[in-house]
Design goal:
By secondary structure, the chain is α/β, with parallel strands linked by helices. It is built from 7 helices and 7 strands; from the N terminus they run αααββββαβαβαβα.
Length: 235
Amino acid sequence: MVTRQELKAAVETALALSLSGRYSTLARPTDLYEAALFAIMLRAAEQAGGTVLVTNDGRTPTRDVRFRTGPGVLASGDEYTFAVVTFPPTSERCEQKLEVHLGIAFAGRSGICHECDIAILTHAEAKRVRTGKRKYPSARALIAAVEAKFLVRGPVLGDGRNLIGLGSELRLGKFRLVAPTNGSDALRTLLAHWACGFFEELIPGSAAALELEDEVHETIQDWLSRRRRRVVAAV
């Protein structure tokens, strides 16, 4: 298992930023593991041609990185760190922006809210939440999501069932399950059947981390391609 100190160093290296004193003290290994996955999402976005702003207010870069250490909501002022990713616009009126967040809730199909460990969503939807037009972001705006299982024993079938339940409420095809250890054979079979990505033995710098980065990069590219096709069709 990767250690807490190794995770902290990996996050700070990937972001080229120091974690704030309070967060660095409070963050458990599982929190730092999610922060390391957040950094992988940012590299995937950069691969897709995005310019990444790590920020606490959505406008200016931060030197004070403060991630959530528990479930939260998107519209929480400038208390927590997230990222805005800007891509070249398809037209003068069509900005292309995404946001990457840790530990925020989305509105499910049932009306119940569910937390995503790491989520990429459209900036337009995040803006609607901040301006009060929505209480929680809609799952329709979810581009990719990662559920992290920082477990010594490794994830098992029950973890897969939970992921499928969460995905059925939000967007099943958008979810990946990630763990630093090996999962069970039954879990692999279940997630393969439901086309949910599973990345095991994933620690910063591992082959699995690169595979996750590549897959999320492709997902973002697909989103960009769909937006460009809509713009062309509207012309």
